[in-house]
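Hey, can you fold this?
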Amino acid sequence: MKRIRCAIYTRKSSEEGLEQDFNSLDAQYEACVAYIASQKAEGWILLPERYDDGGLSGGTLARPALTRLLTAIDEGEIDQILVYKIDRLTRSLSDFAKIVDRLDAACASFVSVTQSFNTATSMGRLTLNMLLSFAQFEREVTAERIRDKFAASKKKGLWMGANVPIGYDPDGRSLKINESHAGLVRAIFRLYQDFGNIRLVKEECDARGFRTRIRQLSSGERTGGVKFSRSNIQYILSNPIYAGRIRHHGNVYAGLHPPIIDPKEWDEVQVRLQAASTRARLPGGRGRSVGRPPVSLLAGKVFDETGDRLTATHSKTATGARLRYYVSNRLIKERGKKDNSGWRLPGPELEAFVERLVHRKMEAPEFIRDAASGMSAEAIAALRNKTAKIASVVPSGNSGPSRLILSFVDQVSVEPGQIKISLSTHALSTEFDIAEETIDPRALEVIAPFQHRKRGVETKLVIEGDVRPRDEKLFRNIARAHKYLAAIKCGKTFSEIAEAECISKRRIQHLIELAFLAPDIVRRIHEGQQPVGLTSEFLLRNEIPIGWREQRELFATL
């Protein structure tokens, strides 16, 4: 008779009662021992090692005893797991699927002693999945109930735990002031009112020997007692707890605890913090430092044809490069769900595109004449000279769009085939020192057609008639194609050319088709006037018609 080596797993969510001589873990273990004894005739034997997890949730697999148990299963030391109830092992369907996969790989099974099934049979697995579904549902409902209770308690101003902020001590469901630390909090607020700069506040705190609160963890380890960092000071200055308020998920409620800082004083500090943060983000702001990633200069100003705002966002490549985008807000809300009507525009390209259009507008001789038609000829001439100087600030190379020119932009509206830019009357009146009411807003609109092609969710924009840099990769591949064609005419085979060029034969067969492009198409590629979608990738991925007329018709749609 084959022996079936059995291991018992027990778990309890809370630590309550674990100190007793006979606790819940022991009760679960004895029930499983009795069940194994009843199956002795089937060859079941109990392994001596116990696997007990006390005070740990079933919502995660990161449990010491469970980890040891699964490792033993992987090593082939256990044939069967026994638990008192299925939710002792896990309450998550996804986690249970992972456990079952490991059991199957080790030819092991799972048994619940109070529920008549085991995973060795198909009916047992079906029953198990049904029970797990209810267990997970119960867990999620419990979590929702706790969250609702938490939110309701905070609305009443109750303190619901977590780390006690410096300056306070816990007092049941509220807080009481710790005077020895409250003086330090008041000093930090006074320093910020004096300096208005967190960096200077930190330097003064260091000079005065201020230290963070010392905390003792449940493990006995002590933390804190170090210098305040800038983030520590920022947290203290912006925490509404010090004004006698409670924050919960962006909402702030009146708290039951006494304030350390007068609420009016705290509100004044928030205004100064917000102003400093805004100033740091603006072009030329004091907070901008060398080496910091570039800001999105059109943030909050770009809208699509539906009126949806395009949000400034970014992603990072595997090498750590930062790629900026302007993305329709509905795409972000739907967490990337496919939406063909949404926009995802590359940030630097859109900013450079808008900058060129605004530059052209301001460079035009009639710009000032139309915008300030009620002014005298002498005033218009003076303003025209000033506008010419501003418009001459055009970036070169990869230096990015002109911050000054983009600061005149009030709103950008993007729709298929057209872009509309509205300049700000306030920005122009401030820069040129003229009355805002004398500016005609109709003369501050820029409407331009553009070509666009979506590649995935990204859109490339080109101003009509704009000369773009030549696609060197495409032009180089065309030159190679002609070189390979000439070698074929001289009697060489694809294999011989591939060996000589150290590339694959298939690559040469793909590239050589570029030698049959119409001469006028090659000329447009050389001049940078080809359609936006006409790239090496497109040509190598798609079949190119032999006839030149068919080529022109195909490429005209890109």
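Oh, and this one too while you're at it.
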Amino acid sequence: MDTRKRRERRLVSGIGVSGGCAAGPLFFLNRAEAESIDPEESLPASPAEEWERLAKALETVKEELGLLAERTQASVGEEEAGIFRIHAMLLEDEDLLDAFREEILRKGKSAEDALEAGVDRFSAILGALDDPYLAARTADLADLATQVRRALRGRSSSHGTALPYPCLLVAEDLSPSETILLDRTSLLGLVTLRGTPSSHTAILARAMGIPALVNVGSLDPLYDGETALLDAVAETLLLAPTEEEELAFLERVERERRIAREHEAYLHALGDRPAVTQSGRRILIYANIGDGSEVESALAGGAEGIGLLRSEFLYLGLGELPSEETLFHAYADVVLRMGDKRTVIRTLDAGADKQLPYLGLPQEENPALGMRAIRICLARREMFKTQLRAILRASALGRLAVMLPMIVSPAEVRACRELLDECMRELTAEGKVFDQNLEFGIMIETPAAALQARELAEQVDFFSVGTNDLLQYTLAADRQNPLLAQLCEENREPVLRLIGEAADAIHEKGGWIGVCGEMAADLRLTQRLLALGVDELSVAPPYLLSLRRRVTECE
């Protein structure tokens, strides 16, 4: 018989960051003992020895981040894996490294103390900038500092938190690395006392399908081991429920699971059928992927093509520019596996949140408005030609299209077309085959491009709308800033009007238009996008089946 005193029934509210319900005992994560520090550990040796210790720890963490990115890509997706690739690049930031050097070599601090001082100083600088994206990187730095601290003490960050039994995990907050390494077999749900719905941790929880509630404020540790009912949809956590409440909740969970299984079976039955609206209009359902590892999941979801192959991840995973052969083989792998289905490759979209340290670009006050995407490519033409040649060669193996990001003027398109023609002449002279009629398109992700859609349509075969950037550039609002989330949610109309204008312009020239940003996956907007004339919708593989069903319900 259980002689424990029953805790008081209590209903707690938070912010639901992923759907679903879960019931089970609470398990409070206590980092205090695991992270305790022996005072003697922070006593410095010579400055040279301390710098060597820190440098080795930084290299260890970068290697671990690479492994985390690979694990995330395989189990969750390429976009989520990018979180850890960005973290690795932060550890190569020269300003941060200079801060560490100053603390050790000039001030004689230990590696541990230099790490804390350098991160604190750098975080304060980022937090003071009038740039929500850069200010948000302070949370990433805190995660990285924890990982480097463990590496300094010979501990690995590549092992997940062991859960003693199937439970609802409670933590002050979780870093992205901790989240991806959680034991999924014992994790029923996730509750954090702090956190925001736009944090990297929340993004991972959604992608992993974990019922999660963040920012609940406080929970009494005395509830450790007590049964709780987590409802991420209602955004509540019921502590110490009655037996009747628990039974009813478990019946609901099982009912929802059964409905989900039936829904999944129905969606898979739709997977091989064309997406046709109620009025008989055919809509193409494509997938967004990062590389060849996601092709199988795209095909399993019924993708009729690849609407966005993010080629920059081939560059982010290397310490130097990839060769033409490396790029060609990567593209050829995707094209061959897609068969006669169209694959749209977006040319290098580096810069902003996807920095390539080996390019040696100057630091900018506002990277989102600086040297990025096509601007870098036109400034580094030989680098751009290497990619274009690889794309052209791969076009001989299947149905391929090339797409330019961040276009703001017809002059940019002409310059890119000239380089593409130059590559075609070179390959012809070398006796190499390619598709002479390669489809050539651009992304509409700036207001400038949308407003010049008719002039741009004269030069291309298709448009693809990147709604993520188009939204934030149109509204002058960072969509990842939690303070602006409601503003972005409530003011999509200007973006939709720009999409409609672009659709009219490209259709007048006999071309087609797709949408590959987050709006494509928002089922509330599907009917509106189709009414605006959108011909193709491209989403991450997990959303393909539900989008196909939604299209068949539209007029």
